[in-house]
Specification:
With 160 residues, the protein is of the alpha+beta class. The chain folds into two domains: 1-30; 48-147, Jelly Rolls. The chain is 22% helix and 35% strand. The chain is built from two helices and six strands. The chain has helices spanning 6-29, 48-58; strands spanning 62-68, 71-78, 93-106, 113-118, 122-125, 131-147. Strands 1, 2, 3, 4, 5 and 6 form a six-stranded antiparallel sheet that branches. The protein is globular, with a radius of gyration of 22 Å.
Amino acid sequence: MLRLSRPALASAAVAAAATVAALASALASSPQQPPLVDGTKVVAFFEANDLSSAQAASKKSYYPFLKVPALHCGIYALPKGATDAQPPHAEDEVYHVLSGAASISIGPEGHGESREVKAGSIIYVKANVPHRFHDIREDLSVLVFFASDPAKADGGGSPR
């Protein structure tokens, strides 16, 4: 049996506590990227803040996090002043603005509808209808829901 003196035991406890604190700090400062849920689970839970952090860490404007036969979801982010160059999608979609402020144009260029959007706005866009965010006044973070066609092999669904 190993016997430690009180000072040695106290020193070991302090070292262990410092190691645990350093590990906790490292984990907190580098957000874990939630895995893409691919339809093998019956239920999945997500936190919008965690997904937004993972999207930012990915350095891509679109971060997919759910892909099941009838639905794809992701976080789409555009910085202030950015240009949204996404093409029309072959799926119906719903946008829920998590944060930021911008305008969205829906419909053919010059003949569609343009509206201001902000945190809390929800926008439905029918499949194959041109649309884009513009006049992005504040960094924009949007939760995107794509209605996928289960008959398609890939199901589609992602802004580009």
